[in-house]
C-alpha cells in the first residue's frame, strides 16, 4: 500500500507528465492524451507514476535484473528509430541502477540499436562503478523473435520487464503507428513477446506509451479504442484498429512516452528519498542530442533535430526541471 504522501506526489507527477503539447494539425493526433490517461487511471485506481514506482520497488528490492524494451519506427520515415523511447529507457535504467543496484538490459532491434546504445553509453559513463547497461537486439520475424525472447528470459531471469514506446500487435496480429499505418510483421522485431513470457513466470511487467499502439494498452484495449482519434482505425482496414492487444500488469499513459519513464523515476526518487535518481535538465539535453547523432529522428516530424514528438529540446529540459521541483518539495 502506497503511503498517502507518495500518492499525493504521484498525482502531481501524473498531471505534469500528461500535459499535452501537440500541434492542432499536421503532427501527432491531438486531443486524447488526457482521455487515454483517464482510462488507465480508472483501470488502476491510483496515480500511475507512483503505482509503477512502488511495484518496481517490490520487484527489485533485492537487486536483480530489469529488462527495458524500447525502440520504435520503421523505414522510410524513421529508418533508425525515433527519439521517444531510447531516452526514457536510459533514464529509467539509471534510476534502477542507482536506487537498487539493478543490472539493466535494454532490448531492442538492430535498426534502433544506435540510439539505444548512445543513450545507454551516457549512463554507463556516469555510473562507471556499476555493472554497465547492456543491449540485446532481436532479429526480425516471429519465430526468430520467439527464440530470442525465450533465450533472454532463460539467461537473465529478470525481476521486471518494462516497455517504453514499443509497438505491440493488434488483435489481428499487426503492429501500427499511432496515425494508423500498418507495419509488415516480418519487418519488425517481436520484442513484445517478452510481455507474455514474463507474465507466465509471474515477473512484473510495465508498459509506457502515448498512443495506445504500444505494449501495455492491451489491458484497456476497448476503452482506449473508444477515446482514440477515429476510433483508432487501421489504414490497412484491420477491424480492431491500431490499439495493441498486448497487456502488462501496469500501464502508464503519458503525453510523451519518455515523460512516463521520467515520471516513474521521479516517483522512485521521492519514495526512496533519493533526489539524484531523477536526471538533470542538462542530462536530458545530452540524451536527446546523442540519440539524434546516432540517427534517431523526431517521431512527429520525421526530422533529424533535437526534439521529441514535435516538442523542441527546451520543452523536455523544462519538463525535467519541473519534475525535479516536485521531487525537491516532496522529500
How would you describe what is shown here?
It is a single chain. With 331 residues, the chain is of the alpha/beta class. It has a single domain (4-10, 30-330), classed as TON_0340 (inorganic pyrophosphatase (n-terminal core), Alpha-Beta Complex), CATH 3.90.1640.20. Helix content is 44%, strand content 12%. It is built from eleven helices and ten strands. It has a six-stranded parallel beta sheet, with helices on both faces. Strand 9 and strand 10 (311-312) form a beta hairpin. Helix 1 (4-17) runs antiparallel to helix 11. The chain is globular. The model has no long low-confidence stretch (mean pLDDT 96).
Largest sheet: 6 strands, parallel
CATH superfamily: TON_0340
- First-to-last CA distance: 19 Å
Low-confidence stretches: none
Summarize the structure.
With 331 residues, the protein is α/β, with parallel strands linked by helices. It has a single domain (4-10, 30-330), classed as Alpha-Beta Complex (inorganic pyrophosphatase (n-terminal core)), CATH 3.90.1640.20.
What would the keywords be for this entry?
inorganic pyrophosphatase (n-terminal core), six-stranded parallel β-sheet, alpha/beta, two-stranded antiparallel sheet, 331 residues, 44% helix
